[in-house]
Amino acid sequence: MAKIYTNRKGYKIFANSGKSVHRWMAEKKLGRPLKSNEVVHHRDEDKGNFRMGNLGVISRSFHAKLHNKKKNGKWFW
């Protein structure tokens, strides 16, 4: 069984490789490594929830825009 720890930012990490669980899961689902401009977004913002239905692969620029639409902890459009 793989050893997993939580890093300072709250992400689950495989101890043997240093790879984050959510990125590893997204790569397995896609069948390829993530591109340098891709990130894995947690839809519910729970970094410990790495179920596939909670993860989405999006561009870094869209991810930044998405999180910039958040004000005082609440989403606004």
Notes on the structure:
By secondary structure, this protein is an alpha+beta fold. The model has no long low-confidence stretch (mean pLDDT 89). The strands form three sheets. It has a two-stranded antiparallel ribbon. It has one domain: Homing Intron 3 (I-Ppo) Encoded Endonuclease, Chain A (Alpha-Beta Complex). The longest helix is centred in the N-terminal third of the chain and has 10 residues, at 21-30. It contains two helices and six strands; from the N terminus they run ββαββαββ.
Mass-distribution shape: globular
Separation of the first and last Cα atoms: 43 Å
Helix/strand class? alpha+beta
**CATH C-level class:** Alpha Beta
CATH structural architecture? Alpha-Beta Complex
What would you report as the Rg, rounded to the nearest angstrom?
13 Å
The total strand number stands at 6
Sheet-strand content, in percent, reads 25-35%
Supply the number of helical segments: 2
Can you lay out the helices and strands and say which pair or pack?
Blueprint: E1 4-6, E2 12-14, H1 21-30, E3 38-42, E4 55-59, H2 60-68, E5 70-71, E6 74-75
Antiparallel strand pairs: 1-2, 3-4, 5-6
Concise account of the structure shown:
The chain has helices spanning 21-30, 60-68; strands spanning 4-6, 12-14, 38-42, 55-59, 70-71, 74-75. With 77 residues, it is of the alpha+beta class. A two-stranded antiparallel ribbon has the order 1-2. Strands 3-4 form a two-stranded antiparallel ribbon. It has a two-stranded antiparallel sheet with strand order 5-6.
